[in-house]
């Protein structure tokens, strides 16, 4: 039908064949085949000129509608062919799966790609280091500092609190300072890959230079909270733990000189997973519209990575970039500073 419409406009086999990028004999054969299928002559042929028959002229508007309908049908098919399908495995440490930014990002992903299923996998303190490199998950909502080699998108900033035994006399003296807690043992982590991360969370060394004294080892939140409830040690957690981890025997106390914490979406570089790319697009879209925790709307004049002064581009984990849509700047598990921008979206 498309070739017939071109011929009806040109009324010349040579020009019509040129428009259709065909040879003239091939175009003539295609038109003859259409006439045979329809059982009627569409073109009056002569050695000098051609013209449409009465049937051919009557067929032109119908042919146009058919070609348009086929184009629309193909456009819909193309959209569905590009639609993503599959399962995205997303890790979440602690109560991150229930945080507002995670809920909003995953809702945005589902709205954009209803064919993508999201499987949330809880990761403990140890698994946060290994699950991504082992390919067990595709991305993770974590609490920086991130392990070396991870890329991260900053999501939120919030205070931290001290987690004390409920019967500790200091609970009634809140708010506290880090100096008030200097005599307390702190829960430790089981693997060396977590040392730089845990040193940040336990503020080791303390502002006066004194080292933290570590006590019992815990590989997950239940073990950590159990050690605290039994009076063996204390810990430092995001302020959201007050809601996520309310437990008998445990009290959460404000510490005025305890640096803030951050949350991040983490993934490995050089991934060609289209589902991961879709998640990052969804996250960036949400963060351009909303901010979370202590963050403020991003400054449109903030310089891009690489153009900022060196001192501005190297911050400590306790002083993250405050724009929610910006990158995480933090200290990796090796103790090295790294700054990572999210990929272009």
TrEMBL record:
Pfam families: HTH_1, LysR_substrate. Residues 1-53 form the HTH lysR-type domain. The keyword Transcription regulation applies. Residues 317-337 have a biased composition (Polar residues). GO terms for molecular function: DNA binding; DNA-binding transcription factor activity. SUPFAM superfamilies: Periplasmic binding protein-like II, Winged helix' DNA-binding domain. Residues 291-345 are annotated as: Disordered. Keywords: DNA-binding, Transcription, Transcription regulation. GO terms for cellular component: protein-DNA complex. The keyword Transcription regulation applies. InterPro entries: LysR_HTH_N (IPR000847), LysR_subst-bd (IPR005119), WH-like_DNA-bd_sf (IPR036388), WH_DNA-bd_sf (IPR036390). PANTHER family: HCA OPERON TRANSCRIPTIONAL ACTIVATOR HCAR, TRANSCRIPTIONAL DUAL REGULATOR HCAR-RELATED. Belongs to the LysR transcriptional regulatory family. This is DNA-binding transcriptional regulator, LysR family. The lineage of its organism: Bacteria, Bacillati, Actinomycetota, Actinomycetes, Micromonosporales.
